[in-house]
Amino acid sequence: MADTILVTGGAGYIGSHTTLALLEAGHEVVVLDNLCNSSLESLRRVERICGKAPLFVQGDIRDRAGLDALFAAHKIDAVLHFAGLKSVGQSVSQPLEYYENNVAGSVILAQAMAAAGVFQLVFSSSATVYGEPAQMPISEDVPTGTPTNPYGRSKLMVEELLQDLADSDPRWRIALLRYFNPVGAHTSGLIGEDPNGIPNNLLPYVSQVAIGTLKQVSVFGADYPTVDGTGVRDYIHVLDLADGHLKALQAISQRSGVSIWNLGTGVGYSVLQMIRAFEQASGRPVPYQVVDRRPGDIAECWADPTKAAQELGWKAERCLAQMMADTWRWQSGNPQGYAQ
Ligand code: NAD
Ligand code: UDP
After folding, report:
1. Residue pair 212/204 in contact by the 8 Å Cβ criterion
2. Residue 151 appears among annotated catalytic residues
3. C-alpha to C-alpha distances, 197 to 37, 135, 220, 237, 291, nearest whole angstrom
4. 216: how many CB neighbours lie within 10 A of its CB?
5. 109 phi and psi, to 5 degrees?
């Protein structure tokens, strides 16, 4: 298994939890992040948790000279590529920013990797590449669909260009990890998700209502053909996701070409089920109001995680109650996120 790992976007939500898991597993970690959506405090806290720190380089994946200098200074064995922009709404109003960071940034990173002779890459993709799937649960052989926004299209474009790259040169060993809905925080309550401004995603929004920062949750539609009319998603604990990355790294050291794995639990929960579970975990009321559907949303989406279980020996271990308890511990201990 590779031993020095470059983690792009390693100061962010999923990147910081995965950096911690890598350090705990004995890897050397170099984090490259431009801090456009994160704070160095996350990595200081990673060090508090495990007593080890990653090497931090403040820089941008679009900066080829900076990448070349990084690869020259450190003998990197593999890259976990989290860096990118992730707000669906913002991607609609600023599409070029999204294509530049997510698509052009990934191209430049891959070029710098090839120049440095580094060919192992794990890419953060998303279940959004399936578009509106005709069947549930979603297995990896369900064809990719038509994502409904520039963010989703940027993820699909990167998946496709990485496939082309691997077809062109057998030295590449690439994992495309399609995340379902990452939630939760480290059990210490020291690191977690720290969204900028008003959260777009359900659970950060719910937890800010529970703490009193926001007044009530807007439930986007209660007329879907689901268990209670609200949208159903496959929420996965960020610590399970982090473990999945370590398993994927191990796997691609043994297999060439592109491998695709869903990272989900295989179980879906509705918006109302999530709100109730959060009320239970926090002991706080979470008032909500049903409003119109959010454009672009699908009714339901959950993973068939069989392929990851068979090929990686990985499955999500943490239940909904733990996702909620860990989110609440982080939220209540850090009401302003890292900014305090
Ligand atoms: P995040 O915003 O917390 O982390 C992304 C990190 O990348 C941030 O620290 C940011 O500062 C950095 N970054 C952004 N553009 C950069 C650039 N050009 N150069 C260097 N650093 C840059 O997001 P996250 O939730 O941790 O997501 C990580 C990855 O997983 C992203 O690629 C995201 O699209 C993908 N993903 C996330 C979710 C989710 O719900 N959180 C779901 C599916 C896929
Ligand atoms: N949702 C909601 N209110 C919110 C945010 C989200 O009702 O303030 C719903 C959304 O319609 C979807 C689910 O919660 O059914 C998960 O949405 P999220 O944005 O967290 O993730 P997505 O699956 O859209 O990537």
Report:
1. no
2. yes
3. 11, 35, 19, 22, 21
4. 12
5. -60, -45
According to the model, what pLDDT value does residue 340 have? Answer: 63
Element (H, E) at 332: helix 320-333
pLDDT tens string 251-266: 999 999 999 999 999 9
Residue 243: pLDDT band (50, 70, 90) is very high
Residue 235, burial from CB neighbour count under 10 angstroms (0-12, 13-18, 19+) = buried
The catalytically annotated residue of 98, 130, 151, 224 is 151
Helix (H, G, I), strand (E, B) or coil at 194: coil
Residues with a CB atom less than 6 Å from ligand 2: 181, 200-202, 205, 217-220, 231, 233, 271, 294, 297
Please, where are the H alpha helices in 212-296? 238-252, 271-282
- Give the Cα separation of 155 and 161 in Å (integer): 10
Residue 1 has pLDDT above 60, yes or no: no
Separation between Cα atoms, residue 276 and residue 147, nearest integer Å: 30
- How far is 248 from 244, CA to CA, in rounded Å? 6
Match 């990797």 to its residue by tokens. 113
The answer to whether 7 touches 22, Cβ cutoff 8 Å, is yes
User: For residue 134, what pLDDT is reported?
Assistant: 80
CB of 16 closer than 6 A to ligand 1? no
Burial of 76 (0-12, 13-18, 19+ CB in 10 A): buried
**40 pocket-lining for ligand 1 (C-beta < 6 Å):** no
Which residue's CA is the closest to the ligand 2 atom numbered 3?
219
Mutational pocket test of ligand 1: of 6, 122, 124, the residue with most ligand atoms within 8 Å of the beta carbon: 124
Taking only the tens place, the pLDDT of each residue in 2-33 is 599 999 999 999 999 999 999 999 999 999 99
Residue having the nearest C-alpha atom to atom 9 of ligand 1: 12
Q: Compute the distance between CA of residue 231 and CA of residue 63 in angstroms, rounded to an integer.
A: 39
In whole angstroms, what is the distance from residue 206 CA to residue 272 CA?
11
